[in-house]
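Incident review: delayed structure delivery

Summary: a single-chain prediction request sat in the queue longer than the usual turnaround. Root cause was a stuck worker, restarted by the on-call engineer. No data loss occurred. The affected request and its eventual output are reproduced below so the record is complete for anyone auditing the incident later.

Affected input:
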Amino acid sequence: MSSNAKTLRNVRDISDYLYCARKVYLRKTLNLREKTNAKMIKGMIRHEIFDEFNKTEEEIVSGITQQKNLTELGDIYKNWLLDITGWSFRKNENSTSSFEISRQEFWREFWKSAQPEIQPRVKAISKLLQKNIFGDELWQRLEPKYLTEFKVVSDRLQLIGRIDRIIIENKNNKTIYTPCEIKNAAVTKPYESDILQLACYAMLLEDRFNTEVREGIIQYKNKSIRIAIDESHRQKVFSIIQSIDNFSESNMPQIIENFKKCESCGLKEECFAEK
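Output delivered after worker restart:
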């Protein structure tokens, strides 16, 4: 079968299929749209903060033109992120007010979850400053670099996705691309649906940059987890694509027996109304 725009499957569908196949069915086959909820708004704000931060980090780092200790560097990042958080809340004031989302509470959780990423960044800058590297050169020498909200389309894979963050590093004269997915949830271990989403992104990056992607990172609220991507993950992705393609109006998946999943779903009412 030839590939075209109509046959492309969104990575979100692959992930959601494992979370709840019925949800994907309602969205793709019956064309129903999810209602916005507080969890979705918080997740959107987290994405906006990281996206804006990564787009403006060059300005932050290039502006460092004299020696700074670790505490001072940490404060630079903290204050910049705090400003971006304020900007995002003002931008989404109607939504945050409607769902009574506290900016102060959000910030406390966000800053705590950002520490595993900010601290290594600050230490890397500190090491370069000790070599008297400042300004534009400091930014050029700082690794890794990031791409955010990066859209990738592959007709060959029949996939389309927007990657939250791509970490780009040079190792042994080779460019390494590591996809990173940002989740607005705390976990003890990664969900299979999140791992498959990461696998999709690895496959898309391989196709786009003609390289091999062996691992990715899932950034949860409470921890960052590095995931190895192997062939079994890739085969699972293709299997799910085929299952979604085989959806029909006369064959709706059953409701999952997990009240917690249902409670946070934006299609809960429509789902329960369907026979």
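Verification: Residues 7 and 27 are 16 Å apart (CA to CA).
Action items: add queue-age alerting; document worker restart procedure.
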